[in-house]
Amino acid sequence: MSKSEANPADVESIDAIITAAYDSISGPPGKRDWNRERSLFIPGARLIPTAENAGEISLGGEITPHMLDIDGFIARVGDFLEKNGFFEREIARRTEQFGHIAHVWSTYESRHNVDDPEPFMRGINSIQLFYGSSRWWIVTIYWQHESTEHPVPEKYF
Question: For residue 19, what is the DSSP state?
Answer without folding.
Answer: H
